[in-house]
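quick one, 419 residues, struct below
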Amino acid sequence: MDKFLIKGPSKVRGKVSIPGSKNASLPILAATLLFDKEVIVKNLPRVKDLEVMISLLKSLGSKITLSKDKKTAKIINPKKMKTFANYSIVKKMRGSFLVLGPLVAKHKNSKCSLPGGCNLGARPVNYHLEALKKLGMSYTLKDGYILAKSKGKLKGAVITFPKVSVGATENLIIAACLAKSKTTLHRCAIEPEIKDLTNFLNSAGAKIKWSGRTCIIEGVNSLKQTEYSIMSDRIMAGTFCIAACINQGDLEIENINSKIINTELNLLRRVGARIRCIENKIYIKGPKKIKSIKNIKTKEYPGVATDLQSQLMVLMCKAHGKSNITENIFENRFMHVAELRRLGAKINIQKNTAIIQGVKKLVAAPLMSSDLRASISLVLAGMSAEGESRVDRIYHLDRGAENFEKQLKKIGVNIKRVK
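---
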């Protein structure tokens, strides 16, 4: 099993280019199931989660041709597709569940596995199901599979989500594109990746409009051929910005629209970073003295991204004074805390709030990843700590961070991948 060896502390200096967004690519690839015509999707990131989604689409019958660099996919669907999303694939990635909406909308039925480790009450898939039910889908649960069908085309409806949910918003937008008449979705998630999904669908002739957290979809009979380039990954951009702040780094970050991480950039200005944003570039210099922040709270976009919470916590471990980070999106998203403590971090957890007392230095230790974003934060912590740290179980990181160690090496980090 691969692991990273990191010798710190490191100052990052130089230039990084941000790859395509994993979180935008997955729903867009799922949405290609709606098409009869050829679809070309560009700027795909080279990460494991994309490989899983492409494998799932192929298992359903999609013919997918990848470019040599695997960043462009040409997708052609047969007239008759399979509608069985097997657990052996879906268990690998929760985003696989996004195929349910398009399969029912296009083919009137689906047998789709529940995502691995999930039931209808946790990280609620029931938001997806109950909303699709209002469009005319019926379903039963049997042996860990959703058996879904519709009598004829799905029909537009007015739906208010009980809670803001990224996945449910995506599934419903995709499904509603081919529904009869108009669908109005209230209390939608409005992450940039969701706007990228609707831009993609509109490029193919869908009729989707936004008004705040309300999305209005006029159903169409079919979607036309399209070619679309995925947005850049704002989470990776934010990660590199945080990396620049940890130890007086100096980075030029290109291929990113700074507006989509404006909330996080304002936080980094508060810790003392000097930041300039020009066109699709961010120039950022880390502070000599990292200032603490007492009120960091993750929230649905445009709030602080939960996917950057663990990276921000590493930064606050090096701040002068006490900081608080409250996690409002996911339970169990403090699994990295125990590992940071192994480096000498002083963190106290009270319910969903982490209270962090900054320390002068972190000291290297063996570390173990628990999830994608936590593994990235442990790499940042290893870069900041004195001595050689080992980060195990980095397959989590490979799910969503393209060539992370190669990018880090280019900007001065002593990191290598070993077996």
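The mean pLDDT is 95.
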